[in-house]
Amino acid sequence: MKPLYIIAILSCWLTACSKDAIDQYGDRSFIYLVNAGTDTSAVKPIEYSFAFHPGEEKDTIPVLVKLIGKLTDQDRAISLVVDASATTALASDYQLPATIRLRGHKAVDTIDLILHKSDRLKTGKLKIRLALQANDIFQLGPPANRYIDITFSDMIARPGWWTSVVETNFLAKYSDAKYRLFIEATGIADMTDLSESEQRAYAIIFRDFLARGRENGEVYEDENGQINVSPNLF
Fold first, then answer.
1. Contact 147, 130 (CB under 8 A)
2. What is the CATH number of the domain that holds 41?
3. Are 100 and 45 members of one domain?
4. Per-residue pLDDT tens digits for 47-103
């Protein structure tokens, strides 16, 4: 490959390519991984926890791939493999499509990685590394965009927004069990950007959830005793 041709390709990765720029590649097509909302910056790992999605036994992680080259009206096969040397998950922990393709007329497409929940995820994180490989159709894009790590678990930890103020005014003492119940009751896991009145509203929803459950015979306890909101909540 001529040096000027390489420079042209790299320039196209770093900028929005015009049709004329793509035409100069001829029949060559390049593919690489990207994060949502980005172009060619080094692809960042994805981290997922089932703890933030109560009731889900499996979930789908979209893995984005991007094309540099000419669009076609045909689906084209992508070679995406699990790198066993950097993967701790078992084959039963995830599922990739039987056939992985870039669909016709698409410059950006999504590969659905399905993660499966298991008891092992409550005590440790698992990792899957997906790596692109060159094939007869596609060459590879930037080296930093040729693989992506997906780490997943069913673990939970005290979030930064659960401060001493939140404890005193709204939710009382933190525990993992309480946080899981809070997510189940309210449908949210992050109150970082919420106003005080919004935080109070979600705390009231949680309080009412606990009250209804106890009326139906549920027992809500953790290492601190009975799970309750702050007595200062009104």
1. yes
2. 2.60.40.1740
3. yes
4. 999 999 988 999 999 999 999 999 999 999 999 999 999 999 999 999 999 999 999
Contact 47, 152 (CB under 8 A): yes
